[in-house]
Amino acid sequence: MSSTDLKARATSKASGIPGVKHIVAVGSGKGGVGKSTTSCNLALGFAALGLKTGILDADIYGPSQQKLFGLRGKPRQLGPRMLEPMERFGVKVMSIGFLVEEDSAMIWRGPMVISAITQMLREVAWDDLDILVVDLPPGTGDAQLTMAQQAPLAGAIIVSTPQDIALIDARRGIAMFQKVSIPILGLIENMSSFCCPTCNHVTPIFGHGGARTEAERRGIPYLGEIPLDMQIRQTSDDGRPIVAVEPDGIHAKRYIGIARDIWTSIITSAVHRPPPRIVIE
Fold it and tell me: Would 136 be classed as within a structural domain?
């Protein structure tokens, strides 16, 4: 399916956020699995498919999209309650990291986190986006529930490394989204293996195939694996993500391929539903 065909299949129905057609959340049960790097490169993958794309960094305590995209400064204020998102590599970006000092500690309780996420969703001029990627913090707390309530999500993507200790937490993330009736679009295995640049020997540092097995066991799509690679790490640290700077490289093609599969799943299932009502039993 070509990029033009993919874009043509998008519906025109708004998803609850003005100007945004589809919203996908990228989550993980635990930190340190490369979720933000994956979110960044998936957003760039969607843009590479010709889609109008934005990314919202909902990790209030540990924002990183401003660093990954190499962006500095503050968003321009368009009115008393509206901000213009920053933009780079064809992707619109909003993060609390634009609004606070880099070394500031966000010592906020739940209500403040909820308010900040709601504002970044609804008081940002996203304009006309085909897809908005939301980089969630690790865990299953206020940020995740806020997204489930405030925005009708087309679905969620879970990122995990292959080892059992990460998959335990990934299962919690899957269970949380299922509890609030958010479709699971798939599971990505990050840091799947390491290929030595000198001898080309492949070493499964964190194991290999655990995410695929978990996806098959739970009957959810397995979206693929991303290797543990120095080039991905270095370009991320430099604010020049691999999909943006080497779009024809092997790693970029993996991200773009996963983005294509996610987009196809979204537009073929056409999941548009009102925000679920969270019930504490």
Answer: yes
Q: Does 192 count as an annotated binding residue? A: no
Answer yes or no: are the C-beta atoms of 210 and 189 closer than 8 Å.
Answer: yes
Is residue 13 assigned to a domain? no
Can you say how many angstroms the Cα of residue 102 is from the centroid of all Cα atoms in its chain? 21
pLDDT digit string, tens, across residues 112-140: 888 888 889 999 999 899 999 999 988 77
Tokens encoding 171: 């299962």
Asked if residue 29 belongs to a known ligand binding site, the reply is: yes
User: What is the extent of the structural domain holding 97?
Assistant: 20-271
> In 3D, which of 154, 265, 252 has the Cα closest to residue 220?
265
Is 33 annotated to bind ligand?
A: yes
Ligand-binding annotation for 31, yes or no, is yes
Residue ranges in the chain modelled with pLDDT below 70: 1-15, 103, 106, 205, 207, 270-281
Q: What is the CATH number of the domain that holds 160?
A: 3.40.50.300
- Cα 159 to Cα 234: distance, rounded to the nearest angstrom: 20
Q: 61, 18 in Cβ contact below 8 A?
A: no
Question: What total of structural domains would you count in the chain?
Answer: 1
4 within a domain of the structure (yes/no): no
pLDDT tens sequence across 232-275: 999 999 999 999 999 999 999 999 999 999 999 999 875 444 45
134 marked as binding residue: no
Rounded CA separation 130/21 (Å): 5
**Was 209 annotated as part of a binding site?**
no
Is residue 222 in a domain?
yes
